[in-house]
TrEMBL record:
PANTHER family given in the database record: LEUCINE-RICH REPEAT RECEPTOR PROTEIN KINASE EMS1-LIKE-RELATED, LEUCINE-RICH REPEAT-CONTAINING N-TERMINAL PLANT-TYPE DOMAIN-CONTAINING PROTEIN
Keyword Transmembrane attached: yes
Protein keywords: Glycoprotein, Membrane, Receptor, Signal, Transmembrane, Transmembrane helix
Coiled-coil spans in chain: none
InterPro entries reported for this sequence: Leu-rich_rpt, LRR_dom_sf, RLP23-like
Membrane association type: Single-pass type I membrane protein
SUPFAM superfamilies: L domain-like (SSF52058)
Compartments in which it is found: Membrane
Main subcellular localisation: membrane
UniProt superkingdom: Eukaryota
Protein known as: Leucine-rich repeat family protein
Keyword Transcription regulation found: no
Length: 183
């Protein structure tokens, strides 16, 4: 059993009084970190951005906030992400242009993050993106970009945002987009 985790059952994992140590977590090649609904509060530790092997990161439904440069740094450092969920994290910034660094990204959930600015059209350049949710960011506004037929986007949730959309232009481009709600 020494060195093998295959037959280990974790019955209780306590993270009480956790001091985030990315060196410790990164040493094990951590690829999935789900801390959603964990009652965490405060600023997201910048050490999290050192977990460069992460494929999935979920910090949603906590009372967390982020520095203005957080998304820019995240998109620069965590380039192997396939899934990113930051729902209800107070980000209060625009989505930076370097989102295209996440070339493996399949799903992006930034619901209720107090995002501002226009639609992050560069996200449509990510060839693997299938699901994008920006719902609840009522300070995001402006026209939606043209959706090109070669994009893999299947689900787009823009509910409770201030984007303007022309349904005619979306239909004429023949994309298979299932927008749950565009308001």
């Amino acid at each position: 059993m020494e060195g093998s985790w295959n037959s280990v059952s974790i019955i209780l994992l306590s993270l009480s009084f956790l001091v985030f140590n990315s060196t410790f977590l990164g040493a094990y090649g951590l690829t999935l970190l789900n801390l959603s609904h964990s009652n965490f509060s405060g600023k997201i530790p910048v050490e999290l951005l050192q977990l460069t092997k992460l494929v999935s990161l979920d910090l949603s439904s906590n009372s967390l906030s982020a520095e203005k440069s957080f998304l820019d740094n995240l998109f620069r450092n965590l380039t192997t992400l396939k899934e990113l969920s930051l729902g209800s994290v107070d980000i209060s910034s625009e989505i930076p242009e370097n989102i295209t660094n996440l070339s493996y990204l399949k799903s992006l959930y930034l619901d209720d993050c107090n995002l501002i600015g226009g639609f992050p059209s560069r996200v449509l350049l990510i060839p693997t993106i299938k699901s994008l949710s920006l719902s609840g960011n009522n300070k995001m506004e402006g026209p939606l970009p043209k959706f090109h037929g070669n994009n893999s986007l299947e689900v787009l949730d823009l509910s409770s945002t201030s984007f303007s959309v022309s349904v005619v232009s979306m239909d004429s481009q023949r994309i298979s987009l299932q927008a749950r709600s565009v308001c």
